[in-house]
Model the fold of this input.
Amino acid sequence: MSAKPVILVTRKLPDAVEARLKRDFDPILNPTDQLYSADELIEMSAKADAILPCHTEKFTADVIARLPDNIRAIANFSVGYDHVDVDAARKKGLIVTNTPDVLSDATAEIAILLMLGAARRASEGERMVRAKQWKDWSPTFMVGTQVTGKRFGVIGMGRVGQVTANLARGFGMEIHYYNRKQLSADLECGATYHATVEDLLPHCDVLSIHCPATPETTGLLNAERLAMLPNDAIVVNTARGGVVNDDALIDALQSGKVYAAGLDVFNGEPDNIHKGYLQLENVFLLPHIGSATQETREGMGFRALDNLDAIFAGREPGDRVA
Ligand code: DGY
Done:
């Protein structure tokens, strides 16, 4: 019997995913879920045929250049792959895959939670109750803003953007979007397409970001573009922190131009996010949990394993990005 491929698994994965890994591969697991340094990753790669990482491991051009030649693939446990220098991977002949589709529902749920949390001052209210500072009820107490019937704008109408827009339709919201390409009418479902971000922004009572982090989208939501939003808009980000210019968003939240923001992803996450957010009442902050449901985390793991199955069977993996 030929030896099973050795897979270096960088983080603790759901039990069902690790069980399938053990059945079909020879995995190097990380039961204590420690975060490996680049040097540790490179050292452990010496014994592996492929790596199954998360977005927490950064595969820069330098790291990729230092990976031993026995590594054939990086099968990510994530839809986003901005943590991998795909050009460098391609040049080294590495296959890179991601896990699309399986996390769209979970991430869309979090986007809606962020929208509602921001609109209805959920973070502020929750903190008040916990701190026993809730003293009264009055018609003017903790008044937020309603999203029902308002305009929901999406930057990046891929899978997650489409599912989120669909949930927003449940609140009677009118959908507007910017995408590199206009969707077909059956996917658009009556949404209004805007050919540029600048065209979209004035139509967003809520702006929800769903585009990937790329050099082109870095700092996309800057001061100039925030000024194009209607007054009192809400900004939601479940994509990547890098798409937002933090100083600009914090200024807009402080001035009241932006009513509130709901953020699940940050520049400098997890422990070096902009301190300005922590001082603001009108932000609803979550720790990058868009895909964090049991169902979805298993789905992501199985999808990564489907890709590895294909690679080691000599087939084209379904989710190849390099
Ligand atoms: C993703 O899949 O990209 C999520 O952000 C978790 O990494």
About this structure: The CA atoms of residues 84 and 187 lie 30 Å apart.
